[in-house]
User: Fold these one by one.
Assistant:
Number 1:
Amino acid sequence: MSLVKREGIENRELIHNNDKCVGCGICADICPTESLRLGPIVPIARGLLKMDYISCNANNCVLCGLCASACPFDALSLEIDGEVISNIGSYPVWHNGAEINDEDCLYCENCVEACPRDSIFFKRELPDRNDLLVGTISVNEDDCIYCKVCSELCPAEAITISSNNEFGIPDTIEINEDKCVYCQVCKRACPQNAIKAVCSTCMHQEEIEKPKITGTIFIEQNCVNCGWCESVCPADAVKVNKPFVGEVLRDPELVCKGETCHACQDVCPCNAIEIIDNESSIDPSHCVLCGACAKACPQHLLTVKRDSMKLDNIQSPSWKSILGKLVE
């Protein structure tokens, strides 16, 4: 959504993407003209309000781009003559991100299940099952009584019994060998011994090529670099660089309301907060130090302490001073 747009010697436009926004308020904190305002993030996160996390006073905004440069989640972007400032050499650049190595990926889908933002696109291509099996199966229809025992027990649903007569009495049996796995359940269950089946997979296992599981997987733009995908990947195929290094501190003098509040848990974009023994517990391995939890806490017992950030190429002294407040 376009927040502010002005035309002149330079055409500038500030754009906000609420799908990427986590409601951390970093942009509002560093805005030199106080043009950005953080909305009621808790009811928005809970789905009680349908509105963007931030709003902008277009009359005050000078389109400087500080907010866009400060956002580690790319939820704000400033375009100058149609070009995003992160692609312009004189503006700061973030070096956080997440990447999946296709060559190492096993396509197990663990990362997809773990991602709290549904940011991973996944499509798996499985080998043809018939290429992994060797066997034969046949039915002696002179002995078959079409009792349907085999079709009802078949785990692969490969057997169909039907009627081709005017009375509707079963008189036809078909086995779909594209589905059959030669498990021989039907053979053992048949009361007439009408089915002959042989599984030769074990005898021919040296001749069967190892299956290749391929697919398509990539991380979409609303990723917040929480690291869940990296944690659950059994192949070490995922590498994540978080935007900040630091910790979340808790005031020991204040009391967490736990289950009666859980505001911090509801706004956390990383699924990094649990309520344990009626107190909030933050998992530092998946926290990105965005600060949404601290903003949401009605007890004001959380403080985000950032020691460093993955933002560089800050050339302006005034910008260094303002952006430096993120790690103070």
Number 2:
Amino acid sequence: MDAQGRGRAEGADPADQWVLNPQTGDYELRLDSAPAPPPPPVPRQRTPQAPGPRPGGPRPGGPRDRDGERNDDEQDDDGSTDGPRDPHRRRRDRPKRSRKRKALMWTGGVMGLVLVGGSAFAYYWYDRLNGNIGTVDIGDVGSAAVLGDGPANILVIGNDVRTGEGNEAYGNRDNVTGHADTTLLFHVAGDRSNATVVSIPRDLMTEIPDCETRQSDGSTKTIPGSQGTTRFNESYGVEGRDPGCTMRTVEELTGLDVDHFMMFDFNAVKTLSTAVGGVEVCLEKPLKDTSGGTKLDLPAGKSTIQGEKALSFLRNRHGLKNESDLDRIGMQQKFVASMLRRLKEDTLSSPSKMLDVADAATKSLTVDQGIGSASKLLTLARELGKIDLKNITLMTLPVVDNPDEPTPVTVVPDPEKAPQVFSMLQDDVSFTEVKKQQKKAKDKQAALLNGPRAEASAVRVDVLNGGGPQGAAGETVAWLRSSAGVSRSANQGNAPAKAARTQLVYAPDQADQARKLADLMGLPAAALKPSAKAGGEGPMTLTLGPDFKKAGVPVATPRKVDVPQSRADEKMCKG
């Protein structure tokens, strides 16, 4: 397949896709040609049978009812069958078929029609949805699995390309590929109990790394990274950057591994909002954009919007508090939450609406190859559907005005709050009140501090500065040696990459040393990270993060971050 294309089930015969599942005894539709699960072990090996009746079906001589009588295709008493007969030949009297037998025949016939009709219908829709989906080969970034066993991170990119009817008033007229206009990082907890959706502002100043892209002819091309910081929305579309470049940018920014991306364009908002029957929004005051490009005119209170009006609502910033991109992000989050509620409360209970929504969504959808089929997206949707709306948190990445601009028009990550958000996501800590999950994680981490302590003179540790104050590594080593008795500590300078928080990495047999250093430094249990390395032949590694203030001052990472948040189950309109 080309680097970007539309996936279809080419050359597949629908009849070949019904496969016997030996574990259930039923035939199942395997639309993406996945191999059937292996049969369970049997006492002896059997020779594979040619295609034909299922095991346990009709045997030579004809099937029998439970009372031992032959079925209708048996021979008559004279040895003839129920095939064509001589019309002048006298037919022997035969017992009338029982009502039960007739009912079974009718039931079997109806089920056969339903099966054939259902398979054709399912195949039609699978083929249609599969043909709608666009895929991009993003190389070695991301995951080949739909969802692994642990936490997952999915990047949802809103592309501001202007293709499609009625989209001339939006976006950049000169850009034919679009930019990463609206970007949401969807973090799904490992136990699927909660999720966090973080909006990344398009005007965020950040570094964009080098990015290897796949070309349509199968070759690769490396797009150079930014020289210093640049706007986040340039991580896609500029100089040939693909969605994989946006994924790499988010990984550099957050310290998280991004598994998949899903990219929508303007048309997706219009078709999706229409397919669900409209999305309810609520305004404290009228919203009018008579002079802007959206021409939006909504009254105060409740409104149900769809199509062009829904897109205008998401694109508009006029009439909002500061008329900024951050204000617009807040409106977008409320719209997304309202649509999620509509999908879960109304659409999922209606098969016809589900198909309409799936058709509308996939027509404007581009994804990575790891989720590049209808069946894979269905698997993903089922997993995400397990999460209660009240446990889905929506927030904007904490930012501050760019200090390098006299009149700020861009933003930078909040130096105090943003690392705390990244740390919580890295540790898979919920922003919602999922008490059982929080207590389990907290107890597991706190247990690392339980146990014997080594003597201070036996502690061996290398100290690196990964985001603490300038010179923090040297000052910490000096303090450890002079005030704490840790003579076997060494300054290793700056860490190779910025750390989200202070962390102590140690081997299992260095746990007593780690506990002692945690006591001396005031490290919380969350800062301890046992490694998989079997033996602690070398020293432990202490990387000082932005939460480190000064040697001798305890490091305390707050469990809750003071940033504006909302929940997916919160209605825009009260009452």
